[in-house]
Design brief:
It is a single chain. This protein has 90 residues and is of the alpha+beta class. It is 32% helix and 28% strand. It contains 2 helices and 4 strands. Strands 2-3-1-4 form a 4-stranded antiparallel sheet, covered by helices on one side. A hairpin with a 3-residue loop joins strand 2 and strand 3. The longest helix has 18 residues. It is globular. The chain starts with a strand and ends in an 11-residue tail after the last strand. The relative contact order is 0.29. It comes from Flavobacterium pokkalii. This is DUF4242 domain-containing protein. Pfam families: SCO4226-like.
């Protein structure tokens, strides 16, 4: 299944409390449950003003639908073509 990186512009995301992050995560999981097993949230990285999310999904439209239903921004969606890591150098 294709993997995507979603950039979500959220001012002061890095200042969100653990309770706020939990609520956001719960909303995301509730929407994913309704949408079915075709779309999967892998993990997210929270930075000062953005959250970068990694998802597995059959297409970009499903990512956009998740964002719409959850009330999340999806400012940029990029399909991952390859993953590299230190093992790639061997």
């Amino acid at each position: 299944m294709p993997k995507y990186v979603i950039e979500r512009e959220i001012p002061e995301a890095g200042k969100l409390t653990p309770e706020q992050l939990k609520a956001i995560s719960q909303t995301s999981c509730e929407v994913l449950l309704k949408m079915g097993s075709e779309i999967q949230w892998v993990h997210s990285y929270v930075t000062d003003n953005k959250i970068y999310c990694v998802y597995n999904a059959p297409n970009e439209e499903m990512i956009l639908e998740h964002a719409k239903q959850g009330g999340f921004p999806a400012n940029s969606i990029s399909k991952v073509s390859t993953i590299i890591d230190p093992v790639t150098a061997e």
